[in-house]
Amino acid sequence: MSHANPRPATLACWLWIVALLVIAIVAVGGITRLTESGLSITEWKPVSGIFPPFSDAAWQAAFEKYKQIPEYREINAGMSLAAFKGIFFWEWLHRVLGRLVGVALLVPLAYYAWRRAIPAGYGWRLVGLVALVGLQGAIGWWMVVSGLADRTDVSHFRLATHLLTALFLLVALVWTARDFAVMARDPGARRARPTGAAMLVIAILFVQLMLGAWVAGLNAGYVASTWPSMNGRFVPEGIDWSHGAWFAFTNDPFLVHFLHRWWSWVAAVALLLLARTLARRGARIEPKLLLVVVAVQMTLGILTVVTGVSMEIAALHQVTGAILVAVTAAALHRLGRPAA
């Protein structure tokens, strides 16, 4: 009879905490986008940027830099310093949380490596997760840069890259945490492996998440506030096909909203089939979590539309999307383990 190994259990708890931080930063990122705060900080200072302006002169200097970009000149001209401080806060908090995620991964990793507590085969994976956080910071700045010179907002393609990279990090954290949790219970257990069905679910969910990021980046949620129709029609009026189907698919807010709205049902069916498969294999927790989170997310999506993109509901929709990704990752890990 094998005895539980406490070290993997501790490692699993550590990664779950980091995963929660990633969900928190996704939530703040959603609020940052909804409040149009993302371009309020026009510089990237990885170390000194931890501290906001403290003096009146420092605040005025930051505000003057914001006044130089198109968003201020074309949309927010005349904004007060107090209003600027409001949008500055959300972008600053988003960036500070990003640094916190990096520290929360790197410092314990160094400690566990020094204590030789990392199981064989996981050292480089954990190093890769730290590197991914650094890459995510660079992607975030690459996204911000797209809105500083020639446009009044960031590229929705870069926004999608930023969000999807964060969610990929979340999946990797959850998967590795589940690995360690299984190892703690049974050191000889086989590692979970992604199945063909898992890859299909991931592909379907990837499309939906990408479309959701495009909706946010294009402000496409505002083009219709009725459901299930879009302004009285199933296929909305206003889609611009003049530049071709591909351009419309990737850039037209009416079409992107329509696709995100209805592809969600494809994603929901895929996730419910996953829940049924796991239930038939004897899993109890993952199928129930999938059912609840899918139902909540679908409801929040509809409410986001019919409320005309209520700030609170839209933010909940984004954070629930991150929770859904985490639950799906845990469910796919269960699917990839030997049947109970």
From TrEMBL:
Binding-site residues, heme: 260, 317
Topological category with respect to the lipid bilayer: Multi-pass membrane protein
Catalytic activity: Fe(II)-heme o + 2 A + H2O = Fe(II)-heme a + 2 AH2
UniProt subcellular location: Cell membrane; Membrane
GO cellular component, one term: plasma membrane
GO molecular function term, any single one: heme A synthase activity
Membrane-traversing stretches: 12-31, 96-114, 126-145, 157-177, 198-224, 262-278, 290-309, 315-335
GO biological process, one term: heme A biosynthetic process
Presence of keyword Disulfide bond: no
Top-level taxon of the source organism: Bacteria
UniProt entry keywords in alphabetical sequence: Cell membrane, Heme biosynthesis, Iron, Membrane, Metal-binding, Oxidoreductase, Transmembrane, Transmembrane helix
InterPro entries documented for this protein: COX15/CtaA_fam, HemeA_Synthase_type2
Pathway: Porphyrin-containing compound metabolism; heme A biosynthesis; heme A from heme O: step 1/1
Cofactor requirement: heme b
Assigned EC number: 1.17.99.9
Subunit structure comment from the entry: Interacts with CtaB.
Chain's role: Catalyzes the conversion of heme O to heme A by two successive hydroxylations of the methyl group at C8. The first hydroxylation forms heme I, the second hydroxylation results in an unstable dihydroxymethyl group, which spontaneously dehydrates, resulting in the formyl group of heme A.
Family of this protein: Belongs to the COX15/CtaA family. Type 2 subfamily.
Protein name: Heme A synthase
Organism per entry: Sphingopyxis lindanitolerans
